[in-house]
Design brief:
1112 residues; mainly beta; Methylamine Dehydrogenase, Chain H; Immunoglobulin-like; six-stranded mixed beta sheet; 10 helices; disordered N terminus
Length: 1112
Amino acid sequence: MLLRDLLLCFGFRILVRARVRQSCCRQCNSDYTGHTRPAMRLRNVGLPPYICMYSLLAIISAHNVNVTNVRVITREDNFGGSFGYSGALYSSDIGTLDAMISAPNSNSKKRGDEKTGQILKFTNIFSTQSLPEETIFYPSQTGLLNGSNGEGFGTTTLVINSTHRLMCAPRWLNTTKIKEKSPAFLGRCVLVGPGSDSIQEFGPYAQAVGYFHHVPKNMYHKHVYWKGGSLFGFSADSDGSVVAVGTPGLLNAKGGVHVYDIASGNMSDYNLTSYISNLNATSYGYLGYSVKLGTFCNEGYRGVCVAVGGPTMLNFGQVQIIHWNKDDIFNKLIQEINGTQIWSSFGYCLGSVNINNNAYDELLVGAPLYTEWSNPDHVPDQGMVFLYHYDLLTKKYIKRDVTLDGSRQKSARFGSAMADIGDINLDGVSDLAVGAPGETDGAGSIYIYLGSTNGFVNVPSQRIQASQIKVPVLLKGFGFTISSQHAPLSNTYPVFAVSAVLTDTVVIFRCKPVVDVQVNLTASPNPIDLRSACSRDFNLQGKCFKVQFCLIHAIRGSDFQPVNFSIHYFLDTHIQSEELKRVTFPTGQGTTHSTVKTTVLESASPNIPVCSELVVLLKLAQIQLDRFTPIEIKTTFQIQPTHSPDDGPLLDALKANNIVEEVTIKKECRSDVKCEVDLIVSATLQNSPINTQWTDIIVNYTKQVVMKINIRNKNETAYGVKITAEVDSILTFVKSKPDVNCALESIELNTTGIDLADTEKTLVTCISYEALSPKDELEFHIVFDINQTYINNDIINKDLNAKVSTTPYNYEHSPEINVDDNAILLTGHVNIASILEISSISSPKEIAMQRTERKSDGEPVVTGGDQQRTPINVTHKFLVQNKGPSYLPRTEIVVRVPHLLDDRSELVANITVEMLTPSGKVQCTSSDQITSTTPDFPTTYSTTTVDWVIENKRRRRSVQNKCQEKLCFLKCEDGPDLCSVHTCEVKTDLQPNSHMELNVNMDIDLAKLLIEKEFNTLHFISDIEIKEPKHLLLKLWRVTQQKESVTSFHFVQPGDQVNIWIIIGSLMASLIVLAIVCVILWKVGFFKRTQRLELQKDRKEFWQTVQATKAD
């Protein structure tokens, strides 16, 4: 809560009805009331409950405000007197800067303990001596002998001109004239002139009666405040000839304003009978809470125009523009401007600034309780200032698009105060200060907005916080009130004052002078010819150029004085990386290390520039990367601090403190700006490792694909070439040869126009920074690895598609004149090459058996005994080996075994077919069990044949009949309907150098093998056939992949058998011969072991003797 809000609450407490009284006084402890016509929604910035108010007054300036060298005035002996609630700065007759500061809640020494208030005058406030109190004004000293306790003398204090001062007491009560039962705060002001007896008291309601008035019931309550409680002098403003005084309590707090002409003594008035209309809606609108004089009316109105704020008018707040002519009696309403947000206190504070010297002032309206609800991060009571300008077409004030809102802090109450603080930077345009006393937990801040001919922007040039003010007492509510601007006679820069009421402290600020600087930056030579070496004057190797910076300065509003400047050079500022920068400063040893350098210039003479020169070296390797982008040289300048930095001059914050020069590289083109090129690209694909048998990409064999690229140029020199290779993602980028700058990039769209089916793509971008003249060629290779993850995918495209394109690296500065030959399409084929080798073995391989004969009735007669009556078990094994180079896709193997004889009798029983693969055992199924054994392969097949499949080298016999040349054959070719067919499904790919084994096990009934006597051998043959895989990448086999396994049966006649006694006799003779041999060996001592040992010992001794003899 603020003092002026307390005045309203306590001023009406006695006179209003109980319901209104309770609603108003609740505002001292709350920001909201539920009454239909609540009192002003007042601010609470966290003060102790016993005071419910505070304020502060301080000097405000913009970027050149001296916040350290300040003047502080403290009234510790008058704590709680609200010292500094209002005040003004002015120049005395002798040229000193004086201050008039009020303390409206202080005790009057003339009236004992009564808090009538007082005003103190301070002389020569910037003197190095302690500040004397020259005069203390009390009500009795100004002719207000009947002053009342708590009248708030000094609530409003104005310096009208060099001779007159205005002092108001809005809570003054005329106790000698009032006749009603309850007193009313009428308010009055006093105008103090140059002489001691020049004191003029005025107040339209000071002597009048009729504080209460009966109002018709259909218009409002039965009794209302009429003139009583008008609070005349609550706010005031002056232009030097007239004074506008606000009366926010007039007519049941509807409020109003009176304009007083100082020369004539005339004052505007209201026709209260007509003014009472619409009182139901306008009561407690507090019109006159703030007033501001300005050029707000068009040329058709003579006299005075004043803007009057009513912060709770119609609950949304309202500003009225009122015209008054001293020849008239009543005010005339010109325009009403309504707020847009309820309870935002629109009109709480008013300001006016003329920013472009036109005929009309800008009107500024503060709404300190405004909340930006449209912002999801909104905070309550952040506050806002709205800007209005006069529209010549409508002849009304309309709102600008720009609003001011500070830093949008919670309970900041931005817009509680504002003032035209003058031209603080001497640029010819007035500047604005806006207070936010609730910021930072009630510490407060001031925001400075520099004016321009285009108006204000919502970017403050400076934010001054309470914590920046170095005073003994912690300030609170900084920014509640801001004094009007004043420029002392001895200074062209304005001075401002702000006070901290709760701590009874006033702070005075001054501005630092502003320096204007003219600078110039050049580079030579510019452009740079890379064929030229450095000048001999520099004594440097390589390519270089010179940079020169010159400066001249002047101080606004002051005589010339020397200033030292710090100059900072920054090289190639377009490039952030130090390593990639194209230029550098040389060190004393000729090496290049830094791209930043600092020098100092002393500007000691007016109108004479001072300069500095530096040498810059070029880094040719980096220049090749980019010849077209200018090399930007940026130079910044700052004022070096003086021995007293608190008072030293500053650069203009609205002007740039840097200058930029661009250096270009000379190119070998007809136009140095652009080099027109004509690039031609050619390319081929080569597989690695190279194989003369296959030219395609062979799965599992081809490891890499090399893209050979050639770029030629037919026109002007190309400074940098960009090559893009776009391929299917079965290829993975590895490297480039020679070392061209290539990188893998992501790609989302098919930019080639090539149908790459559903596969993903790989995009590789290569850049050559070397200059490519018309007579040169660029050749390099891009190496790709085969991505096996994609290769093993069944949906892979059969063709490998690729596109190679080229463009100039810097197309803007090096355009292509013919794009038709900038791209080429390449196609490669992907194939699976699986070479199979099939072998077989049978067990037993051959069987000898007696011929089976038939009886006269056709039944077989077995003469070989039980052996031919028992079925024999036969096994046929097949080994399938993949010799590569590619894997064998999933397929199936068909096994056929002769099963039935011509008479449909069963020759073979218990047939089992089993397959062993690298992934495990597979049980094959017979034909009567098969439902569907075809794998799920793609439906698109190749019809191309190949010549690299190895044929089965086994030469088949030409068989026209089942038997020929004493040989008979039993196989499925001769009677496929008599065979048992088994299918083995290969569910996984058979990798190179892997194999799988098929075992065919069966029982053959030998008794049923009938054959004519002229034939002596029967070949029992089973076979397998590997079905061709239905894979997109596999070409058709030219030779059927099949193999046979044979078991031979040899038939022997019964008469051909050997007599059993011959066999027995042969065995007996063999035993007799063996016995004779053993006896002979025993006789010769072969079996005597000891004799052999002795013989070996004798031989050893003999040889030892021989060796000894030779030694002698």
